Amino acid sequence: MLEAMNTYRTVLFVLLAATQACAGSGPGAPAPAARPDADRVARLEAIYQARADSLLLNPHEADVHFITGMIGHHAQALVMAGFAPDNGASPAVQVLCARIINAQSDEIAIMQRWLAERGLPVPEIHIEGSTLMVHGPEHAMNMPGMISPEQLRELGEARGADFDRLFLTYMIEHHEGAVTMVHDLFASDGAAQGDFIFKIASDIQVDQATEIARMELMLEEMTAPGP
Fold first, then answer.
1. What are the angstrom distances between the C-alpha of 102 and each of 48, 108, 184?
2. Is the pTM of this model over 0.85?
3. Could you tell me if 123 and 140 are in contact, meaning their C-beta atoms sit under 8 angstroms apart?
4. pLDDT tens per residue across span 138-149
5. Distance from C-alpha of 143 to C-alpha of 168, rounded to nearest angstrom
6. In order of start, what are the domains of the chain with their CATH numbers?
């Protein structure tokens, strides 16, 4: 919220400064004031504050759907990546899995806090081996790219190079689903207007698109015929 208000204050100062400059640009006009009129600043700040409060108290339905669904989506990625150390994953895949766990664990906590601050239902995550349970809105476990329980068990039973290939195949699909979720959010009229939603969705899109490209290259190298 503080970040949003700082942004709003910067914008209103620029707009008011431009207005002052235009008003004083005619022949013989007095030099523009060094700062915008205090009363007008106060009125505009009140407008921006009301907008920020509205975003806090009345989040867009698409924003809530995205955040709730992405928590479940990220949780499944944690399960998938968590298999790597015990399933004989290659060093490169283990490094990738560690990065996924670190990044997505942090994002889950941030998204849960965003929901809690607005008094909205917060999905609770329970992971036991290859079993993932998310208690909360039903759609939290039914998002694009999520693999089936059978596929998750298959991944959990794979070892060595077979695990690497299966993990990369499924995680590429999983990441593509997350990118689809971001596209759907941005395509929703009135959604992603708050700084938080726009930033986390943009970060997810960029991070996962980058990892998709990396995983596709890793998978290509694994499946390429030898010399």
1. 35, 10, 25
2. no
3. yes
4. 666 789 999 999
5. 19
6. 2-57 (no CATH), 61-223 (1.20.1260.10)
